[in-house]
Specification:
The structure holds 2 protein chains of 2 kinds. Chain A is mainly beta. In chain A, 7% of the residues lie in helices and 43% in strands. Chain B contains 22 helices and 6 strands. In chain B, the strands form 2 sheets. Chain B has a 4-stranded antiparallel β-sheet, with helices on both faces. Chain B has a two-stranded antiparallel ribbon with strand order 1-2. Classes of the chains: A mainly beta, B mainly alpha. The interface between A and B is large, with 48 and 54 residues.
Chain lengths: 243, 497
């Protein structure tokens, strides 16, 4: 299968848990699918149809730290701005927030749309992953030909939840999968396994082969213990792993 | 009626309502069960000790805490009805969907100033305050919720433990684990709530343990039960949220942050599962755990003697240190598996009294091996090589009665000295007409190849070999004949720790 492989690097990023809004904002260890969807759309310049898009990724960083931010906590307001006749729309106060941030993040993103190559060479909006200040640079964009193999290694990626039946590595997490902009950004969530370590399907002690299965691998990435880097593709809609 | 969704606070609320109804599955719940849960909440949140305590969950602006309602109980009742009993009212015409259940939002507005079905910090922990537009799509303030979700999130703190003045909420991808945690915490909360009500106390007692210790201790008890019941015990991952939603909380407070998240990843829960499966592990592991409990004397007693009657939560140092892994793995293995004492610590720290001389019977290569394989992900080949070297060195020590080698190997604090010690032992063994203890390949694979370890360290390899040596020498009853080997065993390294 021919896919688009985009390598993006930045200085900082973070992926806030959506319902923890107060004072401390921890980060998911991996970018949620909803973030990836937004990122792809920003390069293309429009809301793409999520139905046919599949993605996989490899996400790393050089460290994690907490930063204190000043956030202007705002609410709607009436009246006039002090000393003017201008209407006041919002008012609020500056609050300190502690946010967990990744240092020097690197995303290698695989998309099943090789025809989108040009969009990433010339992205429509500033390249960011996470919030608007988390600017990224595309350091490598190419079309790669993936092949299927029975064995692979997986690391620093998001696995479908079923993976927790096969390996005792990582932890499960509920993440925003897709925000429906046609319905006021209504979120859908999905459970995934964060694979923050390397696992080999060849190691029977760490990977349970329940049935003959084949995985997409990127043969152009470094080989480890005789196997290639495996890729676990996800969709934004439909059943797990997309349509 | 209800179902688990994967959202931690909501799921814990569901589990709590199940536990209140004494039903195992949310699908078995009836309208009457929800009604009874609502009644329980209404009757108990409005009075102490929950009234005072649940400010940590819903702030002092919550319906049961609002001073404005104190003189208008009918208003409080009306508000309670809106938030607790709107589970059968939903606005099917609205496009708004509950973020937790995907069902239509409730038609009930949780305040006269709010649109229907919008929740804020006083309804769901850790959301923004009322009307705040930050973090909401298009600045449209509030989180849209269904009536069922509103009730579940109100029930949520009952299924949490009170630790350090905060809520400890435990969620798992396995609903059975989520349910059992919630049920256990609910039972404790109800007991202490009744005791407090009877004695007229306003204070909700704290859990008997610190948050992280309570998390692991409870998990292990649940797993033990599940094993005994032969329940399906696949891989499970557990996440705990230690939180406060109090208006007094300070995001910059390092000691008491508004939110801490603790993971029990799949590899750790799998390690625990293997411990339970194997009875030979279980007994020794339990002994190691037992000797890691904080001494109840020390600071707590000093405080009591000063008239401060404060029960400090009990900590288990081993449990607490598990959360630091993989950082500190060297110290962890040295401390708990090799019984090397801490050189610094308070009176309460049991690790000050660890002693290889007194506890060599607790040194277990099998537990260490399981830990290396499951938790630290060391490859099997390297583990086997370490075991082989340990086996050979133990045999050499026994055969030559080389106490000096044992002491030197234990105390060595420079890599080049380690090499020299091993070379000398190797030479001596060969001179005695025996085969090599280790060759170049074995040396490399034990001390130099550490692909899986983020923190490769020759000391770690030495300690692991030593664990095998100690276990083997214990089996050979060598220590009982050579107890003087333990004198002056403390190394410079131990003093520096």
């Amino acid at each position: 299968m021919k896919v688009l492989r985009v390598t993006a690097e930045g200085l900082t990023t973070s992926f806030r848990y959506p319902h923890f809004m107060l004072g401390i904002q921890p980060t998911f260890e991996m970018p949620p699918p909803a973030t990836i969807y937004g990122h792809i759309c920003s390069a293309i310049g429009e809301w793409i149809d999520p139905e046919e898009v599949l993605f996989a990724y490899h996400f790393t960083h050089e460290g994690k730290f907490d930063d204190v931010e000043h956030i202007h906590v705002l609410a709607a307001a009436g009246g006039k701005l002090p000393g003017t006749v201008m209407p006041k729309v919002l008012e609020g106060a500056v609050n300190p927030y502690k946010r967990t941030i990744f240092f020097k993040p690197k995303l290698v993103l695989y998309i099943n749309k090789p025809e989108w190559l040009q969009y990433f060479y010339s992205p429509r909006y500033p390249v960011a992953l996470g919030r608007s200040q988390d600017l990224f640079t595309y350091t490598d964009i190419q079309i790669v030909d993936l092949c299927k193999k029975e064995d692979a290694y997986f690391e620093h990626t998001l696995a479908p939840y079923e993976f927790s039946m096969k390996t005792a590595r990582g932890y499960s997490v509920l993440m925003p999968r897709f925000l429906d902009y046609s319905k006021g950004r209504a979120p859908t969530f999905e459970r995934y396994v964060v694979l923050n370590q390397r696992i080999h399907t060849t190691d029977s002690q760490e990977f349970l082969k329940v049935a003959a299965e084949q995985y997409w691998v990127d043969a152009s990435m470094p080989v480890n213990k005789g196997v290639n880097l495996g890729l676990l593709f996800h969709g934004f809609t439909g059943g797990r792993g997309g349509k | 009626m209800l179902q688990y969704t994967g959202h931690p606070f909501y799921d814990i609320g569901v589990a709590t309502i199940c536990a209140l109804a004494k039903k195992f599955k949310p699908t078995e719940l009836t309208q009457e069960d929800l009604e009874r849960a609502a009644t329980f909440i209404e009757e108990n949140y409005g009075r102490d000790p929950l009234k005072s305590f649940l400010g940590v969950a819903f702030t002092t602006n919550a319906w049961f805490n609002q001073p404005a309602f104190d003189k208008q109980p009918e208003k409080r009742r009306e508000y309670a009805n809106r938030i607790l009993r709107s589970f059968s009212t939903s606005d099917n015409t609205s496009e708004q969907r509950c973020v937790f259940t995907g069902e239509p939002v409730t038609t009930a507005a949780f305040s006269d100033k709010l649109p229907p079905g919008r929740a804020f910090r006083q309804h769901i922990p850790l959301l923004t305050g009322e009307g705040v537009i930050n973090f909401h799509p298009w600045g449209d303030a509030g989180l849209p919720v269904s009536g069922k979700a509103a009730l579940c999130l109100q029930a949520f703190p009952l299924g949490c433990a009170k630790c350090g003045g905060r809520l400890l909420a435990v969620h798992s991808d396995n609903p059975d684990i989520t349910f059992r945690f919630a049920a256990e915490f609910l039972q404790y909360n109800r007991e202490v709530m009744l005791l407090a009500q009877e004695s007229g106390s306003k204070k909700m007692p704290e859990a008997k343990m610190s948050a992280r210790t309570l998390l692991i201790d409870t998990f292990l008890r649940i797993e033990k039960y599940r094993q005994a019941e032969l329940e399906e015990t696949g891989f499970v991952s557990v996440t705990a949220y230690h939180l406060t939603n109090s208006g007094q909380s300070n995001a910059l407070d390092e000691q008491n942050p508004p939110l801490s998240i603790y993971y029990l990843p799949l590899e750790l829960t799998d390690f625990f599962k293997q411990i339970f499966i194997n009875s030979t592990y279980k007994i020794k592991w339990q002994e190691i755990v037992n000797r890691a409990w904080q001494h109840s004397g020390g600071v707590a007693l000093k405080k009591k003697s000063k008239g401060v009657n404060e029960d400090k939560p009990l900590r288990n140092f081993l449990y607490e240190d598990l959360f630091k892994l993989p950082n500190g793995v060297l110290a962890f293995i040295r401390r708990y598996f090799l019984r090397v004492p801490s050189s610094k610590g308070s009176d309460e720290d049991p690790r000050l009294a660890y002693s290889l001389e007194q506890e060599y019977n607790l040194v277990s290569w099998e537990i260490t091996k399981l830990f290396l394989r499951k938790v630290m992900k060391m490859n099997s080949e390297r583990i086997e090589k370490i075991a082989l070297l340990g086996e050979r060195l133990a045999e050499y020590i026994r055969q030559e009665n080389d106490k000096k080698f044992f002491t030197d190997f234990y105390r060595v604090n420079k890599y080049e000295y380690l090499r020299n010690i091993l070379i000398k032992a190797n030479m001596r063994n060969v001179k005695q007409g025996n085969s090599l203890i280790l060759d170049f390949d074995l040396y490399l694979s034990v001390f130099e190849e550490a692909e899986e370890f983020a923190y490769s360290d020759w000391r770690l390899a030495r300690d692991l070999v030593l664990i095998k040596v100690v276990e083997k020498l214990y089996e050979l009853e060598w220590f009982s004949k050579n107890s003087d080997v333990f004198t002056n065993l403390e190394s410079e390294e131990d003093k520096e720790e």
